[in-house]
Amino acid sequence: QVQLVESGGGSVQTGGSLRLSCAASRWTYGPHWMGWFRQAPGKDGEGVASIYGVNTYYADSVKGRFTISQDNAKNTLYLQMNSLKPEDTAMFYCAADKSVRRWWTPESWAYWGQGTQVTVSS
Fold first, then answer.
1. 3-state DSSP call for residue 86?
2. Is the dihedral of CA 20, 72, 102, 5 positive or negative?
3. Residue 4 is inside which H or E element, if any?
4. What is the end-to-end Cα distance of the chain in Å, rounded?
5. Which of 12, 20, 44, 105 could form a disulfide with 79 if both were Cys (CB 3.0 to 4.6 A apart)?
6. 79 - beta bridge partners?
């Protein structure tokens, strides 16, 4: 069973930056997908970014502002968020799976963290 624990959320002003981290329990087999999702109150979950090996994928809404990366030695996933906007306010979740068909859809992922809140004020 994979366990994911997010950290790094907080409150910032417009234009600020945050770095989210997701500590994952050790994968015991092969390469895997990891990703970040977010959900704002009253809205559906949105795929923000994902990574598989050296390949990264982003939602159009965060391209050029967010960067996903991972440190395999530390089993940790990161999301560097720059130029934050009020519309980025949401609960952010880390997700993981060995195989993902459509990374931007929450139902494609098997393992989830508990989430970390990001609030951006204007």
1. helix
2. negative
3. strand 4-7
4. 40
5. 20
6. 20, 68
